[in-house]
Write a structure and sequence with these properties.
Length: about 450
């Protein structure tokens, strides 16, 4: 596993304005740097954006909850995602590899291509397009620039950060953190001053337990959507740093930002307004002119902050699939390709972005639930063991992990999904279930992995 001086990472270390070479290699100790504290803003800044706000808006307007019901559901969903993030981030310094590489112990070298492909498509392209659209809407309203041109500008900026790689991404998240935090603090004060937090739940939404569980699932789909990225941003930390501090700062940044802005969105949905326009226009219509413009700028920066991570980690996952590319440039080349694909998807979604957002968030949770179940079960069975010899071993297979993942994914979707185009068989009979697909998938896949692999791993 040790790298020599002629490996791609030689000389990169803590340089910021330099293209990170290679792709998913192990990070040697002489290239490690930083402290766990930086993970707080690395995971706060990407969520100080409009996509987070809109989760809260959906919880009131689409799922039919009042503010306090929505806040509880949002806290539960974000808390579950942050808890998983704690565990996954804490492993980064110990093993020095990206999150998807760590998954090879649970799925095998080739089997791991399945979740890596899910992440590449859902996160590297899907999330990229989603956040690009909100940023383009904000920039369009702020400057009057045509939406396609605004989208192109956003895409070029965020893809550029991802191409340069790990150190510049961390630096950008640190720089924009105070700007985003101050703007949204002021926005929070103004919105809470106008919101009717005691208002009854609106009519026409799902309502009841079903609406509450949909809110939990959507909030988890957003916060948990970052889980497959976790170790990507902690793997450069020195191996001896505190696991508790590493996981704690990462989880705190994720939880605070997700709950804060999603609850802000829920509060804004209680304000009676006749405003028309894009979702960002509707939100900023509650704000005075100068603050509205600052908020649009913050939404634009937040979209770039989120997508710098989406493209970087999506490209990392694609490289982990095993596609052979030039070693020194593979991650950077894939980042550019994902930026181009994401731009086309976002351009297609511009006319009707809001309608598909709810479905997308839930679908993200559908695969992450089973993936987490397998990864956590594998980590439990391998506790106290060395795994370095498995991570880059092309001959290593773990069919039990792939089988457990597919069992949890297929069964949970067939029974519990709650989508416009397909409603699970259990939800048809009991609509109050809302959408608990990710819970069921997590439990089924974790249990299946323990049953299929306990004896085999005991013999390894």
């Amino acid at each position: 596993m040790a790298l020599t001086e002629d490996t791609p990472l030689a000389g990169y270390a803590d340089r910021v304005v330099a293209v990170e070479p290679g792709g998913n290699e192990y990070i040697p100790e002489d290239a490690r740097h930083g402290t766990p504290r930086r993970l707080f803003w690395t995971w706060t800044s990407p969520n100080l954006e409009f996509a987070t706000i809109f989760i809260g808006v959906l919880s009131v307007t689409a799922f039919g909850l009042n503010f306090w019901q929505a806040a509880l559901g949002l806290a539960l969903g974000a808390g579950l995602g942050a808890g998983a993030h704690f565990v996954l981030s804490a492993r980064g310094p110990e093993h020095g590899v990206p999150q998807m590489v760590l998954g090879r112990t649970a799925f095998g070298y080739r089997g791991n291509a399945l979740p890596a492909a899910f992440m590449s498509i859902m996160c590297g392209v899907g999330w990229f397009a989603t956040n690009s659209v909100s940023g383009a809407f904000a920039l369009n309203t702020l400057t009057g620039m045509p939406k396609p041109a605004a989208l192109a500008l956003i895409v070029v900026a965020q893809t550029g950060f991802a191409v340069f790689g790990h150190n510049l991404v961390h630096a950008f998240e640190r720089i924009v953190f105070p700007v985003l935090a101050v703007v949204f603090l002021v926005v929070t004060v103004v919105i809470l001053g106008k919101a009717d937090l005691g208002a009854a739940a609106p009519s026409g939404g799902v309502g009841g337990m079903g609406g509450f569980l949909l809110t939990v699932g959507t909030a988890f789909g957003y916060a948990g959507g970052w889980n497959p990225y976790a170790a990507d941003y902690s793997r450069y930390l020195p191996a001896g740093v505190s696991k508790v501090a590493t996981g704690g700062f990462a989880a705190a940044g994720l939880f605070v930002s997700c709950l804060w802005l999603s609850a802000l969105g829920a509060a804004s949905a209680t304000i009676v307004s006749s405003a028309q326009g894009s979702p960002t226009d509707l939100f900023t219509s509650h704000l005075p002119g100068a603050l509205a413009n600052l908020t649009l700028l913050a939404i634009t920066l937040g979209a770039v902050a989120a997508n710098a991570l989406n493209v970087y980690s999506g490209a990392m996952a694609f490289v982990t699939i095993g596609v052979r590319l030039p070693v020194r440039t593979q991650r950077a080349v894939v980042s550019i390709a994902f930026g181009a694909i994401g731009f086309l998807v976002a351009l297609w979604a511009l006319p009707d972005a809001a309608q598909s957002y709810e479905a997308f968030l839930l679908i993200v949770a559908y695969w992450i639930g089973p993936w987490l179940g397998v990864v956590f079960a594998d980590q439990y069975l391998r506790r106290g063991r060395r795994i370095e010899g498995l991570l880059y071993n092309r001959a290593y297979a773990n069919r039990g992990g792939v089988a457990a993942f597919l069992i949890g994914l297929v069964v949970s979707v067939l029974l519990c999904s709650n989508q416009a185009k397909f409603t699970g068989y259990a939800v048809r009979e009991v609509p109050e279930l809302g959408d608990i697909t990710f819970f069921v998938g997590f439990l089924l896949s974790g249990a299946a992995y323990l049953l299929l692999n306990r004896r085999r791993l005991a013999r390894e």
